[in-house]
């Protein structure tokens, strides 16, 4: 059984149709890249999986671990192992990364009927995961995203992912602001966390991130649906020929 299966997903916002029939199947152990021109629905797809309710699903279904995803609340989705890296991370003044993570982990444990995490266990986990993203204790003690540089925000995002150990991670990378340091942080984190027990979806406009994270499958999301899937070579082909090539190809078939 696939970890995630999306069938003919159509969705709109304020009466405007954005997704026009997305089909996608993701198995555990896989890293998928979703590429495509700006404004074609990549972030919309991520938001719908994570459970943001500003979009209206008009058709289709999403099956996650055998369950209808739309039957699960946002909290339930997170507790069931879905993680969405924030495209625009929010600032939470007065709450340290450390305390924020403690709360997030305990919310998930509560959902599963478990006791709060023991303080020593938590500190061990923190230290271990901080290494993955090369995060200093100084940063972990600062308020979430307050005055963070782009690179620090990325570190925090991947650190959250590492702490929560999600089964399905969706990292929606904005097209701007990913400098070489941020790219390296995201890539190192993803590469350290990829395993046979999880799946990771990296959404990106540019091919360069995929020089660092080698995906098993590359998809092109174009005009609201996945129009092409292939191996990592597809990303290189896109880089070379540009997205207009996809449009022309579709017209010819
Ligand atoms: N909150 C919103 N209100 C109105 N339109 C939106 C909103 N969010 C996204 N859209 C529209 O949905 C389309 C797809 O956007 P998006 O999913 O962000 O594309 P991508 O991530 O591929 O760049 C765009 O035309 C965008 O303007
Ligand atoms: Mg986007």
Tell me what the structure shows.
This protein has 253 residues and is α/β, with parallel strands linked by helices. The chain has a single domain, classed as P-loop containing nucleotide triphosphate hydrolases (Rossmann fold), CATH 3.40.50. The chain is 40% helix and 28% strand. The strands form three sheets. A six-stranded mixed beta sheet has the order 6-9-10-3-11-12, with helices on both faces. The chain has a four-stranded antiparallel beta sheet with strand order 2-1-4-5, with helices on one face. A two-stranded antiparallel sheet has the order 7-8. Strand 11 and strand 12 form a beta hairpin. The two termini are 32 Å apart. The model has no long low-confidence stretch (mean pLDDT 91).
Short description, anyone?
By secondary structure, the chain is of the alpha/beta class. It is built from 10 helices and 12 strands.
Order of helical and strand elements: EEEHEEHEEHHHEHEHEHEEHH
User: Kindly, what is the distance between the CA atoms of the first and last residues, rounded to a whole number of angstroms?
Assistant: 32 Å
Total number of helices: 10
Radius of gyration over all CA atoms, rounded:
18 Å
CATH class: Alpha Beta
Q: Supply the CATH superfamily name.
A: P-loop containing nucleotide triphosphate hydrolases
Strands, count: 12
The SS-based structural class is alpha/beta
**Compounds present?**
adenosine-5'-diphosphate, magnesium ion
CATH architectural label = 3-Layer(aba) Sandwich
Shape descriptor: globular
Q: Tell me the strand order in the biggest sheet.
A: 6-9-10-3-11-12
The third-level CATH topology is Rossmann fold
